[in-house]
Amino acid sequence: MIFARDLVKRFGDFTAVDGIDLEVAPGEAFGFLGPNGAGKSSTMRMIGCVSVPTSGELRILGMDPVRDGTAIRARLGVCPQLDNLDPDLTVRENLTTYARYFGLSRSESHRRADELLEFVRLSDRAKGKVEPLSGGMKRRLTIARALVNEPDLVLLDEPTTGLDPQARHLLWERLFRLKQRGTTLVLTTHYMDEAEQLCDRLVVMDGGKIIAEGSPRSLIETYSTAEVVELRFPDGLDFNADYAAKLAGVGERIDPLPDRVLVYADDGDAALAEVHRRGLTPSTVLVRRSTLEDVFLQLTGRTLVD
């Protein structure tokens, strides 16, 4: 579905995408992770045929996005980072009007609109205006609009940013059902749990480069330990001065954060027992499994959202 080799995008002297290689297979849910400015959105814009690559090779659906941009866009569904629904139209009209841009007949446009509103659980809002909808409803409507042309490839730029947990989980359910139907999904996200839930495979980008690639589980197994112990110590104590020497050798590695200390170990309970044996008494303790955020901390040394 997507093939890129040594893909580069520059804006003047600034290199946003710096020679990346990637392939996305049919029916795959593929994710881009990384902080703001990592090159995710610039890559997505090239895949969406709205930004011309500076150099390198890029094929979308087997076609050249520079030469065949119109043909490719006709087979794409795009959910932008910010909702751009038409507030003057009803919920249903936002879909039927958009469908007409793809040359669909009036009757087919209405059929697809009704089907998609049912899919995203908005049938009861079909005749209402967009403005009163909640953020989660607007996001679901934007995704429904991206599907109106029955696309072969759907691009989702941070699809759940700003939504409450309930709305995010409902949206994940809808996207998972799309994946079950065989639709190819490509998404950017800041949310690690979202990437683990939705992505078959993903890349981590930083500074315009791909610094890691694989399934969520394989990345965790490669770059982290099985478990992580989160330790919070009493206020007013400097971790570096008071605890670094005492925690040395506990687990595989230690990451001091501003509000807590992370101890990476294959056996979290054993690591915690060693902490207590050394006479340390944290105020709170959490033993959990490793996540993609731990992978990112290991690879970049900072959190995902800059």
Automatic annotation (TrEMBL):
Q: Which residues form the ABC transporter domain?
A: 2-232
UniProt keyword terms in alphabetical order? Antibiotic resistance, ATP-binding, Cell membrane, Membrane, Nucleotide-binding, Translocase, Transport
**Could you name the Gene Ontology cellular component terms for this entry?**
plasma membrane
GO BP field: response to antibiotic
Residue span of the signal peptide, if any? Answer: none
Q: How does it sit in the membrane?
A: Peripheral membrane protein
- What are the subcellular locations of this protein? Cell membrane
SUPFAM superfamilies per UniProt: P-loop containing nucleoside triphosphate hydrolases
Q: Check the record and name the Pfam families matching this protein.
A: ABC_tran (PF00005)
Q: Does the keyword Transport apply?
A: yes
Instruction: Give GO terms: molecular function aspect only.
Output: ATP binding; ATP hydrolysis activity
Give the family, as the similarity comment puts it: Belongs to the ABC transporter superfamily.
What's the name of the protein? ABC transporter
What is the protein's species of origin? Sphaerimonospora thailandensis
